[in-house]
Amino acid sequence: MAAQQSQSIQTLLEAEKEAAKVVQQARQYRVQKLKDARSQATKEIEEYKRTKEAQFKASEASHAGSTQAAQAATDQETQVRLKEISDAYYRNKDEVVRKLLDRVVLVKPELHRNLKKEEH
C-alpha cells in the first residue's frame, strides 16, 4: 500500500510539473501574442501616418498653386492702386498747395460773429 501511495504521489508530482510546464508555455504564448499585436499595431499606425502625410502633401501642393495665383493677383491690384494714388497726388498737389496758401496768406480780418455789436 505504501508503494501504491508513493506511486500515486509520484504521479501527482509529475502531473503538477506537466501542468506548470503547460501554464508556463501559455504565459509565453500570451506574451508573444502581445508583442506581435504591438508590433502589428505599430506597423498599421506607421502606414496610416504615411498615408495621411501623403494626402496632406497632395492637398498642400494643389492649394499652393491657388495661393500663389491669389498672391499674384493681390500684388497686381496693389500696384494698380498705388499708381492711381500716385497719379492723383501729382495731379492735385499744385491745387492743394495753392488752396492752403490762399487760406494762410489771404486773411480777411473780421470780428467773430459773437463779438459783433448789435445795432439798436
From TrEMBL:
Q: Name one Pfam family in it.
A: V-ATPase_G
Q: Where is this region: Disordered?
A: 53-77
InterPro entries the UniProt entry points to: V-ATPase_G
The family database entries (Gene3D superfamilies) matched by this protein are listed as: 1.20.5.2950
Name the keywords, alphabetized: Hydrogen ion transport, Ion transport, Transport
Keyword set includes DNA repair:
no
Q: Which GO terms describe its cellular component?
A: vacuolar proton-transporting V-type ATPase, V1 domain
Output the superkingdom of the source species.
Answer: Eukaryota
Q: Report biased composition (Low complexity) as residue ranges.
A: 67-77
Tell me the GO molecular function terms: ATP hydrolysis activity; proton-transporting ATPase activity, rotational mechanism
Q: What does it do?
A: Subunit of the V1 complex of vacuolar(H+)-ATPase (V-ATPase), a multisubunit enzyme composed of a peripheral complex (V1) that hydrolyzes ATP and a membrane integral complex (V0) that translocates protons. V-ATPase is responsible for acidifying and maintaining the pH of intracellular compartments and in some cell types, is targeted to the plasma membrane, where it is responsible for acidifying the extracellular environment.
Family the entry assigns: Belongs to the V-ATPase G subunit family.
Q: Which NCBIfam families match?
A: V_ATP_synt_G
Q: How does it assemble?
A: V-ATPase is a heteromultimeric enzyme made up of two complexes: the ATP-hydrolytic V1 complex and the proton translocation V0 complex.
Q: What is this protein called?
A: V-type proton ATPase subunit G
In its UniProt entry, the species of origin is given as Wolfiporia cocos (strain MD-104)
